[in-house]
Amino acid sequence: MTRPLALLAAAAFLAAVAGTLPSPALTPASVALAFVALAAWAVTDLSARRIRVTRTVLETEVREDEPLAVEFGVRGLGRLPVTIEALDGNGAWRPLETTQGPRRESGTAAAAGSLALTVPRRGRYLLAPSQLRIRDRLGIAERRLTAGAAHRFLVLPAPDEAAARASATAAAAGDPEPDGLYAYVPGVPVSRIHWPALARGAGLYARRLATAAHDLPLVVVDTAGDPTPGALDWVARAAAGHVQELARAGGCRVVLPGDEGETTVGDAASWRAVHRRLALLGAGPPTLAPPGAILISAAGVRPSPRPPLPKGVEAA
Questions:
Q1: How would you classify the pairing of strands 177-183 and 151-156?
Q2: What is the rounded CA–CA span in Å between residue 18 and residue 15?
Q3: How far apart are CA 299 and CA 18, in angstroms?
Q4: Cα-based distances in Å from 246 to 212, 217, 269, 312
């Protein structure tokens, strides 16, 4: 309402000035200015009463390097001369696209749009209801509204690629026995590819390796002491990189802070479970690593600043 009131004040000032002058030239201008201000306020207020906005967020888990898709649907625009915008994660207003409705709904219109919110750090978060605004086409008046309910989601640490390459080398050091073939997936070491199958025209396959559970590589995560949030983020990404690559290469064992035993990771389900735990990794008691284990420790890691959260996202 700030701009309409300012325009009405300007119209009143012009009218007062026009009353002191012998020429009535300013009177039409003051009337037109007042009319435009009142019309903008009226159409914006009417639109705010008629419009219904829905918000959809499907994902409950995303990685640090993946955006969270927020979808909007708007009904009730009709032919009202207004625009509707949503506040994005950077604090900027993004217009929602207006589309004409089906022919059987002649004269109706809808708007749809989406925002991509990227949360650059792991953890559990809460997405607040989205902020929207309705404005007349001249940008004189606006009304604010919200859409959607609070949405909880988990941000998983992005696996560290350098750690993954180190894990591939460590896993290749042993000589486990082949245990059949499976379809090749990106990331499997070239040494595991079964070239005779490709030569026969069967396609690209990799050798499945059978290793006893006690012979699998062991990854130990230690977050003892008072590590900074940035150091814990590094540990979570490094551990995720090691475990993911070792799981692809045949499996591994994992010990996280507070665990009384080892967790075997050899399939997608067990990898996802460990990945979720790494998303919530915090400081814990000292964890001892036996000889030959891959130790990932927060000790000595330089503290690094954590990037800010997008607008509307807070730690849960």
A1: unpaired
A2: 5
A3: 77
A4: 14, 8, 14, 37
Task: Tell me the average pLDDT across 104-121.
Answer: 72
- Could you tell me which residues come within 8 angstroms of residue 224 by beta carbon, excluding any fewer than 6 positions away? 257, 283, 284, 285, 286, 287, 297, 298, 299
Structure tokens at 93: 């207003």
Under a CB-based contact definition with an 8 Å cutoff, are residues 157 and 232 in contact? no
Q: What is the distance between the alpha carbons of residues 187 and 164, in angstroms, rounded to a whole number?
A: 10
This prediction's pTM: 0.73
* C-beta separation of 33 from 18 below 8 A: no
Q: Which residue has the higher pLDDT, 203 or 308?
A: 308
Long-range interactions of 52-56: CB distance < 8 A, separation 24+: 52/76, 53/84, 53/132, 53/145, 53/147, 54/147, 54/148, 55/129, 55/130, 55/147, 55/148, 56/148
In angstroms, the first-to-last Cα distance of the chain is 35
